[in-house]
């Protein structure tokens, strides 16, 4: 197993390199880069935006100059020297290949630099948004698995019964309803819309959270999370339930189950002593993807609707603002976490079923 773990760790290096290389290449051809973002802010908002971004100098570069053949859209009328200063500030005065390998060298030392448009390091910015995403990702994964696994097992045991039919109807309807649409419905019904004003619509905790006692803090925390988690659990709950049911049905119909029953074992012993271990393998296989999705991407719309300032919203806004240090740092960190969690999932495989030996398989 040690050799397998080492191979997987070594394979992470070219995998991360490929992800970053493809993303960096695509970014080079994307219009509206950081320099153009600054130019747009200057031409749209006056010199204050340029002062904030270029360091607060008095001369924003907005003078009567002819930009000529400038490669930046909207640069007409701006001082070419000011454009060059922006290129130096954002690092675009260097060739793309040099910028790429410098970025990789910095990331290898977990130095992610500073945000282009925020006066904060990228790592501090990510840590600042982390509590929201941890709360959403952790609780949505825990709740969906705690509900869907027992329900999926029950549906597999009662396959074809009235219980299976009406619960399948609920599951299918839950899967068909988009999470963001259900979130809007919850907001209208219970968050000060047209009906009730029972739940807050902004933030992870109240403004006076630090003044509350510990029991009150816990209640306040879950009070803010109720609607976002309810909206997010719908599709995750449906998917995991059907996956669990189908996995258990496949195992229940196999010959070793018939043999176990013939030996006089009870249904509970057969189900949890034999079937459970094999059927749960596919559930464990889907756990990393489910967790990463809920943690980083699945909460984007929910964060936006309920004004939760987490990693999903940070990544989305960084892409719109062309804040490349934040974009690439998010991509690198989350890709690395995904690869590590995938390795952990394989190790859990071997713990649940010792018959699995990754050492004998080609990676």
Task: Describe the protein's architecture and organization.
- The protein has a two-stranded antiparallel ribbon with strand order 1-2.
- With 363 residues, the protein is mainly alpha-helical.
- Helix content is 71%, strand content 2%.
- It has two domains: 31-95, no CATH class; 122-360, MetI-like fold (Orthogonal Bundle).
- The protein is built from 14 helices and two strands; from the N terminus they run αααββααααααααααα.
- Helix 2 packs antiparallel against helix 3 (47-54), helix 6 (122-157) runs antiparallel to helix 11 and helix 7 packs across helix 9 (214-252).
- Residues 45-69 have low confidence and may be disordered.
Features:
14 helices; MetI-like fold; mainly alpha; 2 strands; 363 residues; two-stranded antiparallel sheet
Return the CATH topology of the largest domain: MetI-like fold
Low-confidence stretches: 45-69
Instruction: Give the overall shape.
Output: globular
Whole-number mean pLDDT: 79
| Sheet of most strands | 2 strands, antiparallel
Work out the count of structural domains: 2
Number of helices: 14
Given the helix and strand composition, which structural class is it? mainly alpha
